[in-house]
Design a protein that fits this description.
Length: 315
Amino acid sequence: MNYVILGAGGAVGKALAAKLGEKGEPFRVVGRSKERLQKGFARYEPLVDYCTADLSDPEGAARAVAGVGTVFYLVGVPYTQFELHPKLSRIAVQAAAKAGVRRFVHVSTVYPYGLPQTESVNENHPREPKAFKGRMRKEQEDIVLAADNPNGMRTLLVRPPDFYGPESELSYVRAIFDAAVKGGTANVIGPIDTPHEFIFVPDLAETLLRLSQKEEAYGQAWNVAGPGVISTRKFAEMAFAAVGQKPRLRVAGKLMLRVLGLFNPFMREVLEMHYLWTSPVKLDDTRLRELLPDLHKTPYDEGIPLTVDAMRRAN
């Protein structure tokens, strides 16, 4: 077995499975329910191998990574339980090293950078997170990078911005697509005119696969930026325009998040990260583009209508 996808049920995992399937590469998907795995990945048989395992259990993690060459670690946790991130990564890294895995590719986030100190953020930017979620993600990154062994298992990190695509249920802009496709008003976090960036999920999957095959990429962290910056307002205008409508948005600023957080634990957690809407992290991925000069980035005016069309067909 060449590859295993830990966290295959998420948007990036599904897109990565699609890339591997297109290339005829055998791969394993891991989850707690074989029925759900089969429902999500049956189209890739006989290339796909199903493994039911609880990745919080060292024995389950060992079973998940046994006999594979490359691990893609895409495991998510509930937004209210970020303390699980370093715990789960430590278990996975130790299991993979013990099993003789050659390559471990971990998808991180911009959270470890904390508040941006420069207009654009490259990999040399300090990692000084003040928020709990950022500290947990930084600890997770440290575990992965410390496990890099030039004479054994190699590890690398990839830090993307928020992503979007047909199956990106947990994306910040998912509410915009849902409102555009199903009708209604999208609940979004403000301010909505600051510059953000988003990456189309298939592009991120292709980046992960290509980086995993570059020996010189290991032992390092890599930024992967979107195709440029865009405001939430403009993003919504493009999504609604794809269905011939004007955007309908309900904007919650920091004060409203604070009020909602009194009753909603998830909103309390979002409040901690509100700086990303006022001082967004804009990634500089010059190093990545030098390593992969022909890397494709789908423009927003292509990716947004593609996402709308796919969601309309699915509905």
